[in-house]
């Protein structure tokens, strides 16, 4: 089953990290991805731009509303993700706990629905 590990962290705190510390953190993330690859669990990963470059789009009736970011007064922002392929939620949670991002933020784990779940 595929799971998305959504990495949430405080962007303001991240901007304050010294470049040498950030390089060390990114090295940890690379090592984590290599471990996923070695376990044949890695599917994909990407980092996202800052929430200040994001937007929310809503359509209500014929009215389109676009709200530029940052759009929420929250402590942590969604900053990147891993998609993994593992046996079950328990294994996905174990991989999430190993993710270095879990030490400076939160890793949200969600199963990705299979296309067959939409068949009707």
Structure, explained:
The chain has helices at about 10-15, 20-40, 90-100; strands spanning about 1-10, 40-45, 55-60, 65-70, 75-85, 105-110. With about 120 residues, it is α+β, with helices and mostly antiparallel strands. It has a single domain, classed as Alpha-Beta Plaits, CATH 3.30.70.1060. The strands form two sheets. The chain has a four-stranded antiparallel sheet. A two-stranded antiparallel sheet has the order 3-4. Strand 3 and strand 4 (about 65-70) form a beta hairpin. It is flat, with a radius of gyration of 17 Å.
How are the elements arranged and paired?
Elements: E1 2-9, H1 11-15, H2 19-38, E2 42-47, E3 55-60, E4 63-68, E5 77-85, H3 89-98, E6 106-111
Antiparallel strand pairs: 1-5, 1-6, 2-5, 3-4
Structural class: alpha+beta
Tell me the strand percentage band: 25-35%
Name the strands of the widest sheet in spatial order. 2-5-1-6
Q: What average pLDDT do the residues reach?
A: 92
CATH topology type: Alpha-Beta Plaits
Count of DSSP H/I helices: 3
Labels describing this entry:
120 residues, alpha+beta, Alpha-Beta Plaits, 4-stranded antiparallel β-sheet, two-stranded antiparallel ribbon, 3 helices, 6 strands, 29% helix
Summarize the structure in short.
This protein has 120 residues and is of the alpha+beta class.
């Amino acid at each position: 089953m595929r799971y998305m590990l959504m990495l949430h962290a405080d962007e303001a705190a991240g901007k304050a990290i010294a470049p040498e510390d950030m390089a060390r953190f990114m090295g940890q993330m690379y090592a984590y991805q290599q471990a996923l690859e070695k376990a044949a669990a890695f599917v994909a990963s990407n980092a996202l731009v800052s929430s200040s470059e994001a937007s929310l789009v809503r359509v209500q009736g014929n009215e389109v509303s676009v709200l530029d970011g940052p759009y929420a007064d929250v402590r942590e922002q969604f900053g990147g993700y891993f998609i993994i392929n593992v046996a079950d939620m328990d294994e996905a949670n174990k991989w999430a706990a190993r993710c270095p991002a879990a030490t400076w933020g939160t890793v949200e784990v969600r199963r990705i629905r299979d296309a067959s779940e939409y068949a009707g």
